[in-house]
Amino acid sequence: MSAKMSVLLSAEAAGEQWGKNALVTFEADGAVVHLTEENVLPSLQRAGRKLDSQGIKKVELAGEGWDLECIWAFVQGHRNAKPGNEVSWSGLSEADEAELQARLMATNWVREIINQSAEVVRPSQLASRAGEFIKSLAPEHVTYKIIKGNDLLDEGWNGIHTVGRGSERSPAMLRLDYNPTGNAEAPVHTCLVGKGITFDSGGYSMKPSAGMTAMKADMGGSALATGALALAIARGTNKRIKLILCCAENMVSGRAFKLGDIITYKNGKTVEVLNTDAEGRLVLADGLIYASSQNPELIIDCATLTGAAKNALGNDYHALFSFDHGLAQKALMAASDENEGLWPLPLADHHRAMMPSNFADLSNISQGDFMPGASTAAAFLSYFVEDYQNGWMHIDASGTYRKSANDKWAAGATGMGVRTLANILCDHEQD
To answer: What distances in angstroms separate CA 100 from CA 310, 385, 414, one per listed residue?
Structure first.
């Protein structure tokens, strides 16, 4: 087993022999990270990425200056999708060490399940693994139920069933109740709804091969919602929270849904399918209907929903949509507090009129030139939230997964957004 390399911090610039503005240098005692910029956290993440990319897999953070946020930033950059990397440290307070371990627990689960292939993470397996993960954190406070296959039809969850019926792997809905109050009649504070498309071929509106390479990550919204609840529990939230995951595999077969099909939802809305690759909103609609029936103070849905959001924001921010401007501001403050990327995109009533259908209440895509695809996708979801103008927000999770590495992140899942949502779950109070 190779020895660990010590990594020290310095406020001094690197020597000239290392090149202008060198971030990492090496000496007899190990590596030195030169923090000469005001905002040190991005530099530390880049340093972690640089050491990993140079094959330095086992490191020990030594010397002074390694506080909670510095360690976290370095670890974010150093870890990758393959096993074998190790980072050790010492000197944190008991509270900071507990927080760091909670972040690692939650985000490692999120990253691992997103990075695994669709052959490993099937719809029902995503639901059961999420349920067991949360239950393991608070066994006495967690109950859950999984509805799958044709049982979805019996309960009226036609969106999830329609999208998933073309696959040999049954679609599934997870309904999990975290209730630390001890009162079975306690009101639900928050419902988290996650898109869980374990692989998205696009269906009959088939994606090109290059567009499918990252589609094992199309269940990233479910992973994000689950990880956020896990971290909130570890941080001690005492609120009753329900987790609803809408899981399916979008495949092509003789049973797959087709363009022109009409889905009738449990709330009476009818939707004409004009693009089978706009399937995430079709499964989320069921989850939002169920969430609304629980009468929570807050509904948050998470989804890798649109390429439009990713085109607007890249991988560095999740996109935020909400008609509730006060809630949106709280979410943005939470992201700032947690040093994560979240950025608002427009959502207004006129977006709700951009999905007309000649045969149903609405279609599942916007039509016309220069349509704001991310905004209309969010507007579509609003039809399935009982009071969409208050206490609901939609996160289009653009930063969930990276197809290639950059100077801060390895390729694969990031775990970004878990801290922000956990912050909201712990601290949100309805005005």
So the answer is: 29, 35, 16
